[in-house]
TrEMBL record, chain A:
Protein's UniProt name: ABC transporter permease
Source taxonomy: Bacteria, Bacillati, Actinomycetota, Actinomycetes, Streptosporangiales
Transmembrane regions listed in the UniProt entry: 70-92, 113-139, 189-207, 292-312
Native source organism of the sequence: Microbispora hainanensis
Swiss-Prot/TrEMBL keywords: Membrane, Transmembrane, Transmembrane helix
Automatic annotation (TrEMBL), chain B:
The protein's name: ABC transporter ATP-binding protein
Domain ABC transporter: 5-219
Keywords, sorted A to Z: ATP-binding, Nucleotide-binding, Transport
Origin: domain of life: Bacteria
Record-linked Pfam families: ABC_tran
PROSITE patterns: ABC_TRANSPORTER_2 (PS50893)
UniProt-recorded Gene Ontology molecular function terms: ATP binding; ATP hydrolysis activity
Length: 320, 281
């Protein structure tokens, strides 16, 4: 059965492995080059927060952005591809070609056939996702020591930790279930792409509620100094302590800004702070990284189990 | 006489339509059985139920020992080589005779390293049959094994199967809607019509037990059990079971297999089922 699984799905396995290897080489090359650049060009004490380090940080930033633009689309596209090429054909193609009537009439029972395929391919998908996460996690700190954004940037957040594995597994299960639903590969692929996009959007919206947001009151600035935090909402606090969405009766003149300038808004904010207003920010601090990772991974894993169960059930119940 | 395949009160439906109703059937071991009936009679459904590809709504169907099945379009993995198809069979079956399969393919001149998708239709059918036989089944079921094959390939496929039957105790059930395909090779007949079982029995006994009689349409038919009748002008041709009508104007002769099958298919209410399997039919 293991050989059969390998033989039928080796194209997907090999292409995915080759892609990960290629990405790994790209990241390794980029990191090595960046480290060499730093050792040659970094002033003493850099990289760090010192002013002298600005040029170095900018140079590293350019390098980072160049490579990131190559695989920045991965949090969305990689799961979609996994679902479309690993999940959708698993059962969809068998039905489409009628080969399920060959595969399911051998001595090996249908249940075992499916269990072996789902567990081997599912494990491979999880391993692939974890490998991606590991590579990205090793590569990023070379450029971003001190100013990390693995939490606040949702794109990066979905590429590190356990989330890539959970996303890949979810897409695989979604594709498999879609394959039994349509009994065709192509519509199942389309459903996977749409499903992954919708799920990602939904979870992005939902992630604000993974935990009770932290609250802090700012005076003098409306910008949270922790750049990696996830902003949930904000409001003005009157001197009396009451929170208002829009401080209209403050007496501060608010003029409309023209073009790119936000001079008028800043003046209005300064006026408010001068009158004793404070700015309340609700946010998730970066310390919640793992809590959010596991919450999202948990949701996706549960969904994968449900979809996998659905695929197993419909395969065992009404084959033919 | 033990049964290689036994169905009891088998009923299968797709959504609200019954495609197989109250089907009770016992196929003796060692027979080569022809499963015939018009398109949509339920032949494929009966086979799918027997190999577990679908679950019956009512009753049960049981195969004694290992069953091998070749589906109608003879599905194979087209991207596999012939050798890989054999490896697939070896790994998916408890029993497997690799040497016999390789020998058979060599004798047929089918190269092991060729991709299945690049074989001719006849060769693909041979690979599918070879795979089924290599699992050393007790019952081999073939759904329309000869459809889409040219006459030469038909002959070759049938010869492969019959050679295996001659060698060991193998029961074969093969379906077709063309009776003449099966006339020379089969010794048991099963007729399905509109989801109901009409005939199940030894072909020789069935032929011996029926007569085709012709006579004027005003001749009395007393004494005969008429299966079906057809009129041409003032003449009537009838398929009767058992003795011919008493009136001497009737002329009787033995039916051919095709006449027998057609006679039953024309009158779906007639049935020729042994008592053993006729329960409830």
């Amino acid at each position: 059965m293991i050989w059969v699984t390998w033989r039928q799905h080796r194209a997907q396995i090999l292409v995915t492995a080759a892609f990960l290897a290629l990405l790994g080489m790209l990241l390794l090359g980029s990191a090595v080059e960046a480290i060499r650049y730093m050792s040659e060009h970094a002033p003493p004490g850099c990289p760090g927060p010192a002013v002298a380090c600005g040029d170095l940080a900018a140079a590293l930033g350019r390098r980072y952005d160049a490579v990131y633009s190559v695989f920045g689309w991965m949090p969305l596209v990689a799961p979609a591809l996994i679902g479309a090429f690993w999940g959708a054909p698993l059962l969809g193609r068998e039905y489409e070609r009628g080969t399920h009537r060959l595969a399911w009439t051998q001595s090996v029972p249908v249940g075992r056939w499916l269990a072996v395929k789902l567990s081997i391919l599912g494990a491979a998908v999880v391993a692939g996702g974890l490998l991606l996460s590991l590579m990205v996690s090793l590569w990023r700190p070379v450029f971003r020591s001190g100013a990390d954004s693995t939490f606040g940037n949702i794109g990066v957040f979905n590429m590190v930790g356990v989330d890539p594995a959970a996303w890949w597994l979810y897409a695989f299960a979604l594709g498999t279930a879609a394959g039994t639903l349509f009994r065709r590969t192509l519509p199942a692929m389309a459903l996977v792409v749409a499903g992954v996009a919708v799920t990602m959007f939904t979870l992005f919206r939902l992630s604000d509620y993974y935990a009770e947001p932290a609250r802090t009151e700012l005076s003098g600035s409306v910008v949270l100094d922790d750049q990696d935090a996830r902003l949930v909402s904000a409001a003005w606090v009157e001197p009396s302590g009451r929170e208002v969405a829009d401080p209209s009766d403050s007496g501060c003149p608010r003029r409309v800004d023209a073009g790119q300038s936000n001079r008028n808004t800043e003046a209005w904010q300064a006026c408010l702070f001068g009158k004793g207003y404070r700015y309340a920010v609700y946010y998730h601090p970066p310390a919640r990284f793992w809590r959010f990772q596991w919450t999202e991974a948990g949701i996706l894993t549960l969904a994968s189990a449900a979809l996998g169960g659905l695929a197993v059930r419909s395969t065992l119940r009404r084959p033919g | 006489m033990s049964a290689a395949l036994e169905a009891t009160g088998l009923g299968v439906r797709y959504r609200r339509t019954w495609v197989l109703r109250d089907c009770s059937l016992s196929l003796p071991t060692g027979r080569v059985a022809a499963l015939v009936g018009p398109n949509g009679a339920g032949k494929t459904t009966l086979m799918h139920a027997a190999v577990g590809l679908l679950r019956p709504a009512l009753g049960s169907v049981r195969v004694a020992g290992e069953a091998a099945f070749v589906a109608q379009d003879k599905p194979l993995y087209e991207s596999f080589t012939v050798a890989e198809m054999l490896a697939f069979g070896r790994r998916m079956n408890r029993r497997w005779d690799d040497a016999a399969a390789a020998d058979r393919l060599a004798a047929l001149g089918i190269p092991l390293r060729r991709k299945v998708g690049r074989l001719s239709g006849g060769q693909q059918a041979q690979v599918a049959v070879t795979l089924a036989l290599a699992g050393l089944p007790d019952l081999l079921m073939l759904d329309e094994p000869l459809a889409n094959l040219d006459p030469l390939a038909r002959h070759d496929v049938m010869r492969s199967i019959m050679a295996e039957v001659a060698e060991r105790r193998l029961t074969v059930l093969l379906s077709s809607h063309v009776v003449s395909d099966l006339e020379e090779t089969c010794d048991w007949l099963v007729v399905l019509n509109a989801g109901r079982l009409q005939v199940s029995g030894d072909i020789e006994e069935l032929l011996d037990g029926h007569l085709v009689v012709t006579g004027p349409d005003d001749a009395p038919i007393a004494g005969a059990q008429v299966v079906s009748a057809s009129r041409t002008g003032r003449q009537v041709g009838m398929l009767v079971r058992g003795a011919p009508p008493l009136d001497p104007r009737w002329q009787a002769r033995s039916p051919g297999l095709e006449e027998l099958v057609m006679g039953y298919l024309r009158s779906p209410d007639s049935a020729a089922l042994p008592k053993l399997t006729g329960v409830g039919a």
